[in-house]
Structure formats: structure tokens, C-alpha cells
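Re: that chain you flagged

S.,

Sorry for the slow reply, it's been a week of failed gels. I finally had a moment to sit down with the sequence you sent. For the record, here it is as I used it:
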Amino acid sequence: MKDMTNYKFDSNLEKRRKRRKKRRFKRMLLFTSVVLLVCFVGVKNVINKKKALWSNNISTTYKEQKGSSNNNIKEKENIVATNNNTSNETKSNDANAKDNNDVNANKDSNINNKDVNNSSSNKGIVMTVDQIWSKRDNKKIAFLTFDDGPSSHTPKILDILDKYKIKATFFVLGTSAKNYPEYLKREVELGHSIGNHTYSHKISYFGNYTPNAFVEDVKRCDNSIKEVLGQDFKTNLVRFPGGSFNHKSYETALLNSGFKHIDWNVENGDAKRLNVPKEELINNVKSQIGQHKHVVILMHDSSTKETTVQALPDIIEFLKSQGFEFGIISQNN
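Prediction finished late last night. Pasting the C-alpha cells below so you have them in one place:
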């Protein structure tokens, strides 16, 4: 009887254990389902958010690309319009340039038809060395020339010339160009002609040095002038220190090097000594004019020639009274 009772008890215990296991299994299954559901919902939300974000990015990118495309189209339209405007402006400028060239050509033609071939409104009469000595135009023309400058007297001479609206020709020393570059620049700015008077003004070249040594000194002066006025500045006009008289081999060497020299046929005499009186300078010019049609007058604008400055207005007035026009010697001979 006791054994039967124990058996029933054990059987009931086993049933209870099985029921507990089933309940635990159901709870675990429920819990797992809930967890899986939560995970699924979370993952789905993440995916939806990513889709939305991706969609927004695509939309934004598309808008940006569309905007950029529109901007590019506008830029291209602007470029085309600008190019069209530029083309029209270029055509207009070309047409204006052609008109200007035609006008200049007509002016040049008119100038060449005159007796004096190289006349211009800015510089007055401009003649080459050969034209001056040929005298074919039969006009009375005075060429005022100044050697040995620039110096402290040069600005005074420039002021006098400017007052009379006259251009002159300045034969520059290389050493003086370095010492007074601002005066050399002013000579060019005012429309005067520039000639080369050698670098060192050594009259002892002739007889003591070779023609090639003389030419080298001329070239050295040319370099000094270009250092002041720029490498594009050109003049092949030269005056010998003391004149070229009886120096044929030097003249030939100079000509073979591309330079052209000129002397004078009238001088004011300021090189004879220091402080030549003003009246003597004026009278020297008056006495030498004679029957000359083209007069190339030698004067100096070096630092010791104060009386040359003083005499210049009277010399100009005298030449004007004799019916002379004024010209400059060309830098391109």
C-alpha cells in the first residue's frame, strides 16, 4: 500500500515537472518571438531611414546636377554672347584701325609730296644727312645742334626751345648721359633728335688710335644712351669730336658699322675758349650764314657754356628774321 502511494506521488511530481518545462519553453518562445519582432521592427526602421536618406540624396544630387547643368548652360550662353561682343568689338577696332591707317597713309603721302621729305607736325622738319647736304628743296632751313651734353645748362636750353616751339638735335656724350639721364629723357620727350658724340670725346683717337677703336667708343656711347632710354631706342646719327675733317678711314669704319656722321657749316664759336661773350657768339652766326640755304649750326650745352644759353634767343630771332625755318636731323639715316 505504501509502495502504491509512493508511485502516485512520483507520477504526479513527474507531471508537474513536465508542465513547468512546457511553461518555461512557452515563455522562452514568447520572449524569443518578442525579441525577434523587436529586432525585425528595428531593422526595418533602419532600412526605411536609409532608403529615405538615399532617396533624399538622390533628389538633392539630381537638383544640384540640374542646377549645375543650368548654370553651365547659362555660362556657355554668356561665353557665346561675350565672344560675339568681342568679335564685334574686334571687327569694329579693325575697321577703325584700317581707317586710321588709311588716314596715316594719306598723311604720309602728302608729306612725301612736299619738298622736304621728312616733315611732320610734331617735330617740324626732319631730314636725313644726305637730304640736308643735297639742298634740293631750295628752302632756308636752320638745324640747331648742341654737342657735349647733357649738363646743368641743358634744361635752360630746352626751355628756350620750347618757348619758340623749335626742335633741335643733341649730340650726346656717353659719360654725360650717365650723369644726367633725366635731361636726356626730357630731350626725347620734347621731340628733339638724339645723336651720338662718342662715349669719352677723345679727339686724340685720330692719329693715336685705330678707326676700330673709335667705332668701339661710338658703340659704347650708344649703349649708354640705351641704358637711359631703353634698348629699343635707335639712332645711327654721329658727330665726330672736333669734326670728321681729314679722317676718311674713320668715316669709312663708322659707315661700315651702320652709323652716319654729320659735321656743320656754321658755328657760334663757343668752343674757342671759356666764357665767349654773348655778342661774339651772335655775331659769329650772323657772319657765317652767307648764302647758305641749309645751315647746320654747331653749339654746345656742356656745363661751361653759360653764354651759349644767353645768346640762343637772339640767334633764333636773327634766323627767323632771315626767313629760316627750323628742323632736326633724322636719327635714321
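What I noticed first: The two ends are 158 Å apart (CA to CA).

Talk soon,
D.
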